[in-house]
Amino acid sequence: MEHELEQLTIQEVAELSGLSAHTLRYYERIGLLRPIGRAANGHRRYSQVDVSLVIFLTYLRATGMPLRQMRAYVQYLEDGPESIQQRLSMLEEHRRTVQAHMAELQRNMAAIEKKIALYQELLESTPTT
Amino acid sequence: MEHELEQLTIQEVAELSGLSAHTLRYYERIGLLRPIGRAANGHRRYSQVDVSLVIFLTYLRATGMPLRQMRAYVQYLEDGPESIQQRLSMLEEHRRTVQAHMAELQRNMAAIEKKIALYQELLESTPTT
DNA sequence: ATACACCTTCGAGTATGCTCTAAGTCAAGC
DNA sequence: GCTTGACTTAGAGCATACTCGAAGGTGTAT
Hints:
2 copies of one chain form a homodimer. The first copy, chain A, is mainly alpha-helical. Chain A has helices at 10-17, 21-29, 48-62, 67-78, 84-125. The first copy, chain A, has a domain at 4-78: Multidrug-efflux Transporter Regulator, Chain: A, Domain 2. Chain A contains 5 helices and no strands. The A-B interface holds A 56, 58-60, 62-64, 81, 84-85, 87-88, 91-92, 94-95, 98, 101-102, 104-106, 108-109, 111-113, 115-116, 119-120, 122-123, 128 and B 56, 58-60, 62-64, 81, 84-85, 87-88, 91-92, 94-95, 98, 101-102, 104-106, 108-109, 111-113, 115-116, 119-120, 122-123, 126, 128. The structure holds a DNA duplex.
């Protein structure tokens, strides 16, 4: 079983990316990944470029970017170097979104912490033992 | 239109909480809020306690707690003071979850920032003008 | 009395993102 | 030759959390 040119199977990419093979096929189906190359027997063979993209997509996904928007990014990628400004803008916009989201998490968490502190006080003033 | 004992209508609670009236009814339907008191005409009247709970629930929700788990928390609330330890444990566990989530957001965002930096360099070395 | 706003219930529909199943192909090992 | 395992497709199913629509009741204003 030779890996000519470092082509990886779907299972290998699944392990590398943390996505399931199902999800990798799904991403391809919805146009998030352009059609992946095939071995003689019809099995997918992921190139290093494919794998890098998949992994980068997991970063976008893990920071809450919707698949729809990820697809737009991939579309820009396929447009080549002309779209670098657009890609940059997208990622910068996404960064603002993520930062706002984290700020909101912290705001809401602070409110929850107050309840935690309240419960702790209640338990200290009325100990179980 | 008197507000005896500061009972609020569903619209007022919707505005206060940021949830829609639809969502408030939905929350009641799935047992996240126990049956809300009614005016003579059958309309819901939210007490101050109800409103405080709704607002606290929005904090849990905004930090990613699933409705299922929020329902468990509300269940503990209804068990009264005996459940304070359990409620505290739940909230502390949730805090750990949220902190882990924020750490992951930052880890992934850092990877995206590298791409942003790369694109910025590319644009500087090959300016549009 | 009639319009209007606001509420009610119940059930269905929507959006997102997977996740799984069924039926089939193919290559390698026993 | 036959089993095993990894792969393929197309399409269905599922989990979560809403979100909406239809049909109807009620209270106030004109």
